[in-house]
């Protein structure tokens, strides 16, 4: 079994006269960093709720590590899968930063000494180690989001879903979280990330990308392949990653850049060689 997640013929509707998601089928391989992108109303956040069993499908099936996502299996599945939502106020549970990061660990009966170490370790990784005694009211939205991310990452889950989880962070904060994700993936090659995002640049850096449009899968595949189909991308109002625009402009001048180069920094280094 190489799939962390498998979605089969998934349908959902809030209104019986209008389907929100229509016959979605896709797979996420273990260890992959997958992005789900699309405009508001494309069904991204609804899909996130379905993947975490906050709502149930009208029809179709979801498998997590080969277990059918249902009432019987949800307890087991939630020990391997977690989500960070866009609005941190909806998920801040503890009375302090320290309590909030520790909440999930306490529910798993992690020994106190181990729990304290994990709280310190992950608060530091998201640059919140100096705020452990602070209450939610003393934090900005971005700081609350860092705490929510730390609480999920500390649980040592195998599948982590970010539902616009970095949207409230400043650019430096986003880079910090990306660096942390890469660090964790290096330590655990089977750690799987699913990021539901508006960020085209993030999607371009992922291993696999799924584009939703009006509740259906519009395109899916490796980002290099998807975003090179520029007319198709622009047809639904999405933009092309900035790095790809530069690479295509250079190609017109007969300067060809390797497909593996996906960041401005790497592009500049390659050009300067």
Sum this structure up briefly.
It is built from 11 helices and 10 strands. By secondary structure, the protein is α/β, with parallel strands linked by helices.
Fill in the keyword field for this structure.
about 270 residues, alpha/beta, Rossmann fold, six-stranded mixed beta sheet
Could you explain how this protein is built, in words?
The chain has 273 residues and is of the alpha/beta class. It folds into 2 domains: 3-239, P-loop containing nucleotide triphosphate hydrolases (Rossmann fold, 3-Layer(aba) Sandwich); 241-273, no CATH class. Helices cover 38% and strands 22% of the residues. The protein has 11 helices and 10 strands. It has a 6-stranded mixed sheet, with helices on both faces. A 4-stranded antiparallel sheet has the order 2-1-4-5, with helices on one face. Strand 1 and strand 2 form a beta hairpin. Helix 3 (97-107) crosses helix 4 (112-125), helix 3 (97-107) runs parallel beside helix 5 and helix 4 packs across helix 5.
């Amino acid at each position: 079994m190489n799939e962390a997640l498998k979605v089969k013929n998934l349908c959902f509707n809030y209104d019986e006269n209008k389907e929100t998601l229509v016959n979605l089928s896709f797979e996420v391989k273990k260890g992959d960093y997958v992005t789900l992108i699309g405009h508001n109303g494309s069904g991204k956040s609804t899909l996130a709720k379905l993947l975490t069993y906050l709502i149930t499908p009208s029809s179709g099936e979801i498998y997590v590590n080969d277990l059918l996502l249902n009432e019987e299996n949800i307890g087991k599945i939630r020990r391997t899968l977690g989500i960070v939502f866009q609005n941190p106020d909806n998920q801040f549970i503890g009375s302090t930063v320290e309590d909030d990061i520790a909440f999930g660990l306490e529910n798993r009966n992690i020994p106190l000494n181990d729990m304290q170490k994990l709280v310190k370790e992950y608060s530091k990784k998201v640059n919140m180690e100096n705020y452990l005694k602070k209450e939610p009211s003393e934090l900005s939205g971005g700081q609350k989001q860092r705490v929510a991310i730390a609480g999920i990452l500390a649980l040592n889950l195998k599948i982590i879903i970010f539902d616009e989880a970095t949207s409230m962070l400043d650019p430096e904060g986003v880079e910090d979280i990306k660096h942390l994700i890469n660090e964790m993936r290096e330590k655990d090659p089977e750690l799987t990330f699913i990021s539901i995002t508006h960020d085209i640049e993030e999607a371009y850096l992922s291993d696999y990308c799924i584009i939703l449009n009006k509740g259906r899968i519009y395109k899916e595949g490796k980002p290099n392949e998807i975003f090179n189909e520029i007319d198709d991308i622009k047809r639904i109002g999405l933009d092309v990653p900035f790095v790809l625009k530069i690479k295509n402009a250079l190609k017109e001048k007969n300067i060809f850049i390797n497909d593996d180069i996906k960041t401005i920094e790497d592009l500049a280094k390659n050009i300067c060689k």
